[in-house]
């Protein structure tokens, strides 16, 4: 974990905390504001706070008030006094590496929830209507491939052409040779990090983030540093500061319906982010697995790779078509095309032919989710948000324009306890801590996927409500 020289200025801290509460002592309000930043994941373990003198000038408070606030943070385990550094943020319990997204046999035991538990640890829609027909049509095409060896390490030529057309329709000139088909997005991600990151390289990622990609980076030997993402979206000022401070070889970017926050970055922000990556000579690894998961209106945004030739884009059919296909792809800039294709063939000898024929047909007959699926998922999103907001009025979440889950800000840092209690009530939840990139934080947050069948969501809500009343 890279915490060296991670500092927050007095001006930045003031803007993050906002106005201090008028009721109660000022020192308590200041300390409480900083604690909330830590438990919400916006202030990371190892961050050096401004000196007392700087904060006195910025906030217009007395030296005694600021000193007492810092003393309270230390007493509660949220800060330490470090010789030569000043007051440094600590996460109570200590930092911990972010793990993989929990599965029923993981940290939350399936036995505790029962065999018929509602699983809200995985955010993915079911297969669209007509999937069997797509397989039947692909089976009719399969004999033409039987006589060959069946190895297509970079993907079927017709599928690579269809995926390239997806990018061209979005305004990004792409040839089939720039497309590499993989066994899912994570396999594409593994090929990319092998191609661009020598072991031990520094990598930057927003926190929270998708835990499996962070685990893949660590498994490769990368040193991952975090920059917090606001509930309203990517903090480009903080990203620029982190790029200059960490000087990473690569940065993981999720501009399209970020998992888990659901935020969408506009074109101006994408261009600014790409410019910052270029200035830092950092490769952008853009996760586009949720790009087609819009529910209200199709967004008018461009692929981030339009703005830089240092960006590798990773896509997937798992969310937009069906997870059972297990197909993803990499769109390489020409400068990295050779390196990525070489590393792809070092992982395996290609994805299954039948599934590639299925996806090719699905792309040819209509890209993405059908309208009835979008309507159903939008309805479930709105229903789940309304029902939990009504029954748990202290919970707050933005209604995302896309993505597959709601990211709830809890009134108390009890996310892990909530997940444990929910299992006893027949619901499997992913606590906020598993999405933390560097630290054992985000205890104020919980993710609830909404792309399940309505009957499943109806079963889940009472268990979540009962669990929260139990732990809160």
Give me the secondary-structure category: alpha/beta
The number of helical segments is 17
Give the SSE string: HHHHEEHEHHHEHEHEHEHEEEHHHEHEEH
Task: Identify the strand order in the major beta sheet.
Answer: 4-10-9-8-7-5-6
Low-confidence stretches: 96-112
In this structure, how is the largest beta sheet organized? 7 strands, mixed
Mean pLDDT: 88
Strand content: 5-15%
Give the termini distance in whole angstroms.
32 Å
Q: What is the tally of beta strands? A: 13
Which range best describes the helical content: under 10%, 10-25%, 25-40%, 40-55%, 55-70% or over 70%? Answer: 40-55%
Rg, Cα atoms, Å: 23 Å
Mass-distribution shape: globular
Quick recap:
With 472 residues, the protein is α/β, with parallel strands linked by helices. 41% of the residues lie in helices and 13% in strands. A hairpin with a 3-residue loop joins β1 (79-82) and β2 (86-89).
Describe the protein in words.
The chain has 472 residues and is an alpha/beta fold. It is built from 17 helices and 13 strands. The chain has a 7-stranded mixed β-sheet with strand order 4-10-9-8-7-5-6, sandwiched between helices. A 4-stranded mixed β-sheet has the order 3-12-13-11, with helices on both faces. Strands 1-2 form a two-stranded antiparallel ribbon. Helix 11 (236-246) runs parallel beside helix 12 (267-279) and helix 15 runs parallel beside helix 17. The chain is globular. The two termini are 32 Å apart.
């Amino acid at each position: 974990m890279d915490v060296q020289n991670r500092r927050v200025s007095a001006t930045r801290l003031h803007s993050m905390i906002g106005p201090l509460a008028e009721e109660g002592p000022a020192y308590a309000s200041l300390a409480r504001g900083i604690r909330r930043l830590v438990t919400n994941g916006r202030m990371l373990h190892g961050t050096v706070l401004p000196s007392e003198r700087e904060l006195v000038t910025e906030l217009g408070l007395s030296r005694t008030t600021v000193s007492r606030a810092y003393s309270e943070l230390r007493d509660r385990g949220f800060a330490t006094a470090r010789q030569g550094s000043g007051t440094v943020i600590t996460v109570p319990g200590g930092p911990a590496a972010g793990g993989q997204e929990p599965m029923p046999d993981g940290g939350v035991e399936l036995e505790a929830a029962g065999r018929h538990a509602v699983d809200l640890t995985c955010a993915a829609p079911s297969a669209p209507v007509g999937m069997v027909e797509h397989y039947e049509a692909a089976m009719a095409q399969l004999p033409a491939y039987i006589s060959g060896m069946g190895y297509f390490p970079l993907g079927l030529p017709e599928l690579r052409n269809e995926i390239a057309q997806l990018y061209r329709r979005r305004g990004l000139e792409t040839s089939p040779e720039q497309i590499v088909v993989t066994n899912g997005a994570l396999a594409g991600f593994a090929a990319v990090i092998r191609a661009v990151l020598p072991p031990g390289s520094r990598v930057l990622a927003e926190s929270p983030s998708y835990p499996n990609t962070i685990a893949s980076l660590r498994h490769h030997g990368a040193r991952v540093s975090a920059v917090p993402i606001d509930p309203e979206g990517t903090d480009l000022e903080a990203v620029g500061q982190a790029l200059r401070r960490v000087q990473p070889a690569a940065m993981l970017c999720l501009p399209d319906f970020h998992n888990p926050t659901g935020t969408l970055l506009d074109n101006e922000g994408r261009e600014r982010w790409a410019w910052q990556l270029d200035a830092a000579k950092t490769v952008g690894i853009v996760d586009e697995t949720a790009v087609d998961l819009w529910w209200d209106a199709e967004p008018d945004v461009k692929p981030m790779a339009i703005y830089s030739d240092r960006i590798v884009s990773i896509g997937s059919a798992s969310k937009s078509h069906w997870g059972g296909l297990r197909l993803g792809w990499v769109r390489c800039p020409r400068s990295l095309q050779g390196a990525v294709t070489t590393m792809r063939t070092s992982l395996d000898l290609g994805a299954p032919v039948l599934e590639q024929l299925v996806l090719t047909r699905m792309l040819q007959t209509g890209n993405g989710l059908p309208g009835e699926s979008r309507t159903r998922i939008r309805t479930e999103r709105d229903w789940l948000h309304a029902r939990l907001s009504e029954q748990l009025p202290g919970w707050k979440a933005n209604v995302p324009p896309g993505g597959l889950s709601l990211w709830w800000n809890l009134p108390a840092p009890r996310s892990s306890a909530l997940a444990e209690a929910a299992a006893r009530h027949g619901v499997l939840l992913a606590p906020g801590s598993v999405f933390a990139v560097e630290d054992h934080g985000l205890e104020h947050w919980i993710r609830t996927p909404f792309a399940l069948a309505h009957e499943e969501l109806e079963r889940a809500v009472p268990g979540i409500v009962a669990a929260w009343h139990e732990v809160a």
